[in-house]
Every structure is written in structure tokens, then in C-alpha cells.
Amino acid sequence: MNQTITRQKITRRKVPAPQIMPFFTGNGWRLVEGPEGHALHQTLAKDAAAFGAPQGPHWAEAWEKATAAQIIYAVHVDDGLPVVSLPLDIRSSSGITVAALPGGSHANGCFPVMAKFANSDIDPNGLGEILREFHPEIDAVILERMHTEMNGFANPFLPLRTNISVDPDLAADLKGGWDAWLKRNSGKKKRKKHRQDYSALEALGAVSFEVLSESSEICAALDTFFAMKAERFREIGVRDVFADETIQAFFHRLAAGYAGSGGRQFDLSVLRIDDRPIAIGGHSLLPDRMICEFSAFEPVETGIRSVSPSLYMHFESIKRAANDGYRFYDFSVGDEPYKQRWCDTRTELFDVAVGLTLKGRAFASAHNLVARSKRRIKSNGAATQILQKLRRASFLIKLLPGSFRWPSPVPSRSRWSDCGNRHREAL
Known about the structure:
The chain is of the alpha+beta class. Helices cover 36% and strands 24% of the residues. Strand 12 and strand 13 form a beta hairpin. The model is unreliable at 1-20, 395-400 and 403-427 (pLDDT under 50).
């Protein structure tokens, strides 16, 4: 659990705002959508002090284009200038319309875009009021897996917290750089294993670790990742969260579609033996942290020793994050054992579930009850083991009520039959 946040006082700006920044009148919450909303959000994010990966410059736009989602931006205005921006995805299911964070279950470690000159006196209740006025069809606001603070800024939605998220966020604190982190985290042992793994992999061919820059390479690597992940999910009997075509389309757009836009938000790294990928990782790049959004690996038999391509890649990725000046290498949501091997920072995230209508309040209450029940079960080791066995047998979804399930997104116009088509569509 994070310590109590001490919000530093920030004086009001004394320099004029950029000319490209839209100007509003007065103070408070505003709603913006369409191309103007995307442009405003991207402008604010590119020079922001803090934001979560799902609130990055292009995440919401990529989600909208890949899934045909309805995206609106909740923008807080201070003295006529935007200081906070939060993208919202408006979806309906089973007669309930919800405003939630774009990305569905892939939206982890959320935090609104905060301008460097943002003040702490932001009233989050005003968001519900303006949604009631301009979008009366919305029954509830659901904001899941949000950070309480980021880069010295408190989350303005923390006062609305309804419960602690089911899973925590684990990260490696890189304060002091790579060598300092190794000293704090069994560095000699990790370096020795890394050298031994390199020698074992080298016996199979030339070993290389590369961060991809060309869109065509990124696209091909993503297709390889999806195949690796599908095989792994089949082995352990778990639903493939990347199987949906629209989810794959989304990550193609996010990773490849904005590769040349400057200030990249997302990149892919690949560990290879000769030309064969054996591990792939996707990272969101934030002002203060590099986040491992996903990773997959292919088992390797060296004939010398047991080698995990995943461990080798994480070593290289954390080193890269430290050398590039990031404060944290973030493994995102979940406390799986492999993450605990690397992480020395645990952060409890929070959820907001607030009803705006009568049926919305009932839905929000049910949502909070399910989330708290899941958290209690996960805190019980014996219960967790039982549920893992049930999940492997593909029975968990039938036995337990799930959280809010989005309807299947409308497919993109292009079916994207090959990597080349994906690349062209993303651009």
C-alpha cells in the first residue's frame, strides 16, 4: 500500500500557454469528442507531467478506430485552459450504459492526463454532473485499476474511490540507476544467471535483443506474439484475452500506426536466436516509467541448462529502462511469482463505480460487491488455488459472476488478412 500522499504545491503558470492549446471560458469540467477531442488530448498529453498508459496520447484514438467505440474526453478547465483530460468509452450491455476507461481489461494502471501547471483543487463530482446534463443515457461511471498518485501528482478521482482494485501493481524502483537497483536486488546472482543463460542460448545461434523501430517489423512481431500467447493460453486452459480480432487490431494501431509520430507511447522488444524470435515484450512509455503491458516466450531447449527466455528478456528490459532514465520499470497489474522476482514496489490501485441513474446505482453497487468478493478470495491462498484449478478446467467463468462485460465490439472495416494489410490499415 502506498504511503499517504503529500501533494506538492504548484504555483500557477506565469508563461502563456501554447498557441495550439484550445481555450475555454471559465473553470470546471467540459466534454469534447471527435477529432477535436483527440487533438486536444494528444496536445495536453505530449507535455504532461503524468498520465497512465491507457490515457496516453493515442490509446483512446486507437481503441476507437479498432473497435468502433464511442469516445468522449472529460476535460477539466482552469482559468480557461485544459489541465486534466480523461478519455471515456461509452458502451451499452444488458440495458445498462456505462462510461468506462478505453481498453477494457487491457486498461491497467490508469491515471488522467495532468498538465504540469495543474492545481490540486479539482472537484471530481463535477464529472457526474456534466455527464448527466449532456449524456443522460449514461447510467454509471466505472473507472477501474487507477493509480492513487503518479510522478508527484495526486489522482483527482481518488475522493470518489469505492474500493481497492482486485490486483495490485508491481514495479521495480530504479532510483539511482541500474547498478544501484542490482545492489538492492541480489544483483550478483542475477548477473551470474544472465551470463549463464547467454552462454547456453549462444550455443544455439547468435543471440540478439532489439527494440523495433520499423512499423513492418513491429507488425510482424505482434503477429508472432499473438501466436505465442494463444499457444500458452491453450496449454494452461485459460481464455485468450488477445484472441479477438479487434483487440489485435487495437495493438497493431497503437504500436505500429503511430511509430513515426514522435514521442512514441508504445514499443516492442524482441529476443532472438539468429532470426527466430524466442521472446517478445510490449511496453508503454510514460513520463516516469516503462510499463510491460504484455510478454510471451517460446520454450527453448539448449541441452546445457534450463533457460527461460522470459527471464532473460526482463533482465534486458529493466536494464534498458534504467539506462534510459525511467524511475520505474512497471510490470503492471497482478502479483504473479515471476513479477515478484524483479519487483520491490507494490502499489494498491483503486476503482470508482458511481451510479448516475437509479439502475446505474444498482449496477455500481453490484460491481463493487463482485470486486470486493474477488479481492477477498484472492487474499485467501487455499481459495485461490481452488479457483486456479477451476479456471484451468475452463469452469471458472460459469461458476463465478464476472465484472461488467463489454458487448463484442463492431469489427473494423478491414478484416486484416495479413501483416501487410494490418500495417497499411494502421497507418
